Amino acid sequence: MAEFENLPVKQWTEAMVSAWLRSIGIKEDYVSKLNEEEVNGNILLEVTEDFLKKETGMKSGPALLIIKKRNELVESLKKAQKVHKNQGASKREHSDAKNDNETKEKPPESKETTISEIQAQSVLTSKNDCKPRPFCKDGIDFTYIKHNVLQPESGVVDLISPCHEYKSFAIAATLDRTKLQAKLAREILKFGAGCMNMRTNGTIHFGVMDSRDDSGYVHGEIIGVPVAEKDMYVDALDHIERACSSGKAEHVRQCIRPPQFIEVIDIKSHEKMYVVEVDIVPTISVVKNSVYPVRLPNFRKEANKLEFEKDVIYSRIGSKTEPVSDPNEFYQRVRERDAQRERAEQACFESNPDVSQDLGRKLTMLITSGKKFIEKEKWYILVTNKFGKQDLSSIDFLLNMNIFSVFDFDPDSKVSGLCSEYSKHHAVNLHFMQDYKIPTGKSVSEFASHLHLFEQANWIFCNGRSDFKGNEGQYDEMTWIKSRMTLLKECVSVICKQILPKGSFLVVFLLTSPVEKPLLYTFLEFFIDMEGHDDIICISESEENFLKWQSFAEGSCGVDTVNRSSVVGMKISHINATLQRIQPMTSRPTKFLPVYVKGECNLETREEERMYSLEILGVNQCDETSLEFAKEQKEIIERQFYHGGKVNWLNFWLADKKLVGDVIQRDAYHDISSLIQSNLKRHVGQPPICCLNIYHHPGSGGSTVARQVLWNNRKALRCAVVKPSYSPSLVAEHAFQLREYEEKDMQHCLPVLLLLEDCDREYLDDLKNELEAAFNTKKIAHGTLCFILLTCKRSHNPERMCMESPLENVAVTHKLSDEEKRHFATKRQTLEQQHEPQFILTFVLMSEEFNNQYIQQFVTHLLQGIDHASLVTRLIRYVALLNAYVQNSFISRSHCEALLPITFYSDRFRQHAFESSLSEQAKLVFIHLRDDRTYIQSVRIIHPLVAKEILHQLLNDQLQSDLALALLHEDVLFDHRFGRDDYLKFLRALFMRRSRISKGDESDSFFSPLIEHVQKNETPQKAITLLEEAYIRFNKDAFFAQQLARLNYSHDQFEDAKKWAEIAASKLPNNSYILDTRGQVYRRWFAAKSKALDKVKKTPENTVDAIETALKALECFQHCERAAIADVETMNNSGFFAVVEVGCTLLKLISSLPIFSCKTMCIQYLVTDFIPEPVRKPWENIHSKLKNLQTLMRQALEWISEDLSYFQTDVSADEEETSESYDTTIVHPKTWLVTKSLVYGKYFSDASAETIKKQSQSNPDSLTPFMKRMLIYRLGGGNIITIFSLLSDQKEKDSVKILEEIISLYPRNPQKARLDQVDLSNYIATHIALSCLSPQSPKLSSLQDLRRLTQQLPSEKRDCLSCALYLLTLLFWPEEHDMEDTKNSKYEIVLGALEYLKRSYWKKMKDIPQRRRKIFTHFFLGNGIGFDKFVHRTKVEKITKPLSMSEKKLKFRGEVWKRPEIAELCKRVTGWTEDGTVYIEGPQKKKFVVYALNTGTVPYGNENVTFYLGFTFRGPVAYNITTMV
Length: 1525
Hints:
Helix 32 (761-777) links the parallel strand 21 (752-757) and strand 22. By secondary structure, this protein is of the alpha/beta class. The chain is built from 68 helices and 33 strands.
């Protein structure tokens, strides 16, 4: 570093920074990466730990080291500058003339201090003072920290307080035994004699720096010496007998105590070092009237032997031991010194005992951070070692605290220690330190969920676990330090830096047995990662146990801090009693649940914690709350609620206890209560799961109504709230555990009322399916109501939702009924007497029905005098922007603190400091939230409507896009660690999430509401710029590029759209949704070019560009199709639809050219090798692609038809809209298919339908097979879906006529014609359709003829089309009158078809949940024979039309199937069930499985059943399964 040590840090080059990095031990890989990033001295001063990890991939350890060393360097510079400034004057006074001249030539004082100037002072600023081992305390557990500094050597004080002398002993410690002992004895005897002669206590320390000349060290600095054999040091005192006269040697032995070996801990080294200390205690009873001359041993190198010098009398003079200059005078004052010693000993003996500390108050203040009660939401991290049996009986105080984790150094803890006792009352997660390594690619929230960190106490076994069969043994101290330190660092770092925000937790070191090094290192890691000692406390009953911890801790944070944060000498039983008194709960909470026989049962806490996906509401909920706490906190709790906070159980409990006023019961409360009561009335056809919904305007109190319903039903039903983020399968498992807990018979249990808040339909369906599956598995009797699922959802039109299903839905709106107005007026008067109006803002707004004018006036008044330039106002704008556009958004308090310039003098006062930093306006509009699971705090604006108005009024002339841009660029928020997942989720949603009515939004949108606002109210370019910035901010995310492509093509900026679509596709080349967007760019571009061509005369030359664009679109959509088929988790059909759409538009353009005014020529060009001359040259590069157009369109139509044949076509409104979603959605795909098939047929048939019909009648052979097929397409006979759709036509006569025309276009003798599979399938399907409408039609072939035709199908069923296999199941389904042989042969054909039909079904299903791709039933089995046995679904729907029959009601509602019209139409099939599976008798009496459409209706055990049979592309399905009586 010599080359740049005289340069200021800011002037360092990249090479100099690299050299400095190497000097502090950073790996060369990291040095090179930082050099590549051009990090010079100026940048070094600005880099953060996040930057180092993100930009270089650096691990936490070296990143932390760089920041720490950089900060030490900066701090040293500051201190050195002060020293430099203070010493400047004296330097000038005492320097010689030459130096004086040099000083004058130097730049002024403002010059930055250089490295060379601070080297001398750097050691002073990086070393901590510490205390010596307590004097004459032998055998105590005490340690020193290397490089800590003892107080300077001292002389005689009061004879009792020891004087100290230091010896580095660094060279001597390396000598052989004889030389080492000689040197050691010499120093001890010299110092000891000096102390004894002066009658003062003293300690000589070996391994402590005694000279200021030692390079790099300071006087008193602890270094330590290696001690290979301790007996060498002890035996050195054997020189006493030769060094002292025979009468005095015994005295010296009594006064010089044996050496004590104090271990020196070095964080950077595992070598064992010690400070060797010898205490001198010249008690008056030993030394009275004596003087002690000594002959000091000296090993002479020349003679290579040990010699003893002559007798010398030594005394302590100041901090040194010197020979006595006047022995006579010294002897004369012996009596005087004896008297002083005697008085000192007597005074020490008679001194009053220490006045006892008020440890109870100290403990209370430390645990509560100065509050009256322990905070319910505070997390506690416990670090402890082995508990004694007696102490384990006094841990009740821990049972009521929120223990986040326990760092347990007792390997036997699970068997006989604290873990064993604690787990008797609470569920625990058993972990090891290595479990806390976050895998690459997993977010912090995903990691926390994976380990269930916030559900149960996390017990981290830090030094093995004796009962564990895995490879996790116990280690000795040194092995632990070498092998486990890294794991400890990572574990502590993850918890303190990524999971729990600063100030949200308290670390408690509970020392119940002797302290070992690993526990000390744990303190150091917490101290480093928590950036101080503010939230670390130590509790120790034993002072001996505390001393070692104290000496170590003082090395990091100083004596006063350690003493202030420690409680020493208080018994665990006293701690237990003291802390229980200040807990919010009066005793260990015991929760009770109602039981079926009208009694109650005790819900064990650990059992409740094992059902962690549910917030279970007990009969005695909150009864454990202490009355003192309730009275103290009731105003705060009530004010929080009426200011806009979420209702909690304490609000209802306080009202029930008459400690506050009642919570108003809205009309919706009574409505939903009535619906629950009506569902509780049992009836035979009752489903096991009942769903009720509360739809509410945002902020109208829907959640309060829902929780009020649970509260008032908790004594009659088992009630729980489903916590967010847990899988439906886990919730279902826990729900059944709750239902059956402590009940004798699972057939007789109370229903469980489950509240789900803001869950989507998909999640609800999944949960219902899981509950139904469990219901069936457990074989609970039908008609038993097991669960009432109460959902609470946002909606901008709750009344409409209520009207759609009045027996399931209830509306909560901003509008109040007359009765509600009276309640609100009365309550408002009461509240305004108790609270200032600004503290109950939301209630006031609600009582005003959120009137727009009132909100506007309210916000105008609120914002008067606000400082628009302040950081707090900027924060209000950011929160308002998020709250206005993103549902349920918030910003964590930790983010807010990062943005605001708040100074925390102590973490314990963070809340007060944060609230004090807010402006008056912010205090009024912010509501403080706390996550129910993690307790992480956050803020939002009291109501979304208020947020919108604040945004409007605060912006003034500023545009919303500018504010959004500022928020994007707010690095301090974006890069902040805690709550980052939530913040990024909300920020992403601000730019990406589309509005959905089904999600409670006002309307559906193509872009996020913010982008929609900007493009409509500002400019499209602003919206594009905003998304471009978001793309960069979110690490060039492919989905942002996709949105940019959409936004650009929406505004006809196709070149830019193409660029962004290509970028998105390059990042996710197999994502069908992104590939669809790329196709849409070219599709829209083609549409724009086509529109422009409409204004000019079209020629082959001027149309080629548009056609090429269309062909590019088709190519993109083909890629989309392939990606969609390969994707096993979703099915994106958009590419197939788009191919047909673009194809039709392209055909329209081509056919509009004058050269193709003759349609025959156009068809010839497209389907043959013919090329007209006018287009040969202009279109030379696209001929082959255009000639493939007809094939592409046909394949797409056939694929769509097959897909629609399998599945229902409900458009799911709950599809995820933030990333993978369609650019366009086909709302009615079957109608679309009919229309497009007709258009397709029309373009590829060269005359009108009437002309071709006449031609076919006069000369049938004149029509080619292709022409006939195209005409069949035009008529609607091109695929099975369009054929069966003719059965839905209102005009049956027209449909009959069309079907007959389609049949007439096929060969008169199809048996001889050998039709291909597609034509054959369509031909048979047309006959079946015609038979449903006109069984007597002359065009209708016999059923036997159709069966014979199927012989033309491939003999290998795997080669058959799905539609052909389906038709086989219809045609060959046995009839009752069939002979046994005939029936068996038909069943064999059906079974052969079903085998491959089911394979095809599961191939199409992929890994998609069945509820998202519901099977479609085309036909039911009728009572007739022949064609009459086919009953198309339209006939069933006509019967059920008055009941608003839907597919779901066909599936679930048994009463629909009881209608006599259904019984007349459809045949009931007889079968049986075994273990939940339905069977009918198949070939040769074998079992034939029939899939139950609703598994919940399948009886258990072996039952005879009847049911209606439906025919689907999965195979036969059973409807309305009924047990035979």
